[in-house]
Specification:
Elements (H helix, E strand, L loop, with lengths): L6 E5 L4 H12 L3 E8 L7 H10 L4 E6 L1 H14 L11 H20 L3 E3 L8 H12 L4 E3 L1 H4 L4 H10 L13 E5 L2 E5 L29 E8 L2 E5 L2 E2 L2 H14 L4 E7 L5 E7 L1 H17 L2 H19 L6 H14 L4 E8 L2 E8 L7 H4 L11 H9 L1 H9 L13
Parallel strand pairs: 1-2, 1-4, 2-3, 4-5
Antiparallel strand pairs: 6-7, 7-12, 8-9, 8-13, 9-10, 11-12, 13-14
Helix pairs in contact: 1-7, 3-4, 4-5, 8-9, 10-11
The protein binds arginine (ARG).
Arginine binds next to helix 4, strand 6 and strand 7.
Length: 410
Amino acid sequence: MAGKKGKVVLAYSGGLDTSVAVVWLAEQGYDVVTMTADVGQKVIDLEAARNKALHSGAVKAYIFDLRKTFVENYVWPSLKANGMYQGTYPLTSALSRPLIAKTLVDIARKEGAAAVAHGCTGKGQDQVRIEVCATALNPNIEVLAPVRDWQLTREAEMEYALKHGIPVKATTASPYSIDENLWGRSIECGLLEDPWNEPPEDAYELTANPLMAPDTPDYVEITFEKGIPVALNGERMDGVKLILTLNDLAGKHGVGRVDMLEDRLVGFKSREVYECPGPITLLTAHRALETMTLDKRVLISKKELEVRFAELTYEGYWFSPLKDCINAFIDETQKYVNGTVKVRLYKGQAVVRGMKAEKAIYRHDLATYSEGDTFDHTAAVGFIKIWGLPIRTWTSTFPREDKAEQPIEA
Ligand code: ARG
């Protein structure tokens, strides 16, 4: 028998929140279609998620491996923009939400569903991102958020789940709230809520403790084409493999641990811990290669737009007019970002130790102080005369009275 309210497409992770949401939405009279996306979260068992969704009362359960799409359409654009919220957070969770929203909207269209749903609470920003992105793509779509709108507490959810025969893994539940994908792992809550507490080792999974990391460094050579990494140590590989490989290698050296107080979109500050070994390594290398291949003024303007890019992404404006314009600017700059960067991974740090580009704006013949110098030294005289002209004019009109600039007494 079809539900009287029609179909709803629910973003389904297989966890407690979304499993409860399946039952709840079905009870409200919806035919629940679930959508489970693999964006590289390690913990996910796709087949188990499908079975659990159907067992909880879904009429249909979609499972997608979206890792390639995630990397190509979300992660790489962010890398090209050196995407880091508040200069620190590589936007891990924020990048997956527009893709999840888009997939929900696409499935809703295919299934003839008027609504989509998610299991976010009312305190996070993932709700904002999913809803703003979904309605950006289809302004008529209705968005339901059972966990938020019916104000289900954790305890009420547990009770509800038990009553409806939904398996709950309470004993194995992590003391933290975790969100994971190829571009890193976000860790919140528990002990971390006191900013004085050093994050306990059990919060980490992808990275070694830098203090315990190997005593010998690893060097990795990352080759970029148009701002996108295409090879590691000369071996070409697709984006998913490249990120996974770097996550392992850099993670082993404890690279990519981020610990910050973050300004949330919803108005308060939150203690956030991230593990982003591959992303931090790639961002470090990419930024370095840009210094070798981009014009000085392009770099300056790009930096300003990078801040905007990160904010828009963080704040759920992935699909927005300003972001489209910024993307166009970024893509134009990345035409020139081709070359190879050598990075040393050692005791928690990814440090650039060398780089080369066939077409570089760094020119040895201009920079060298040795043989082969082509810089015109005689031109310096006239250049300085004109460069300093406004300053000389000013000081001869308004003599400086600064104490620090008084003549030094002999
Ligand atoms: N503070 C991060 C962000 O907003 C992490 C979010 C993690 N999400 C979660 N459901 N645990 O991007």
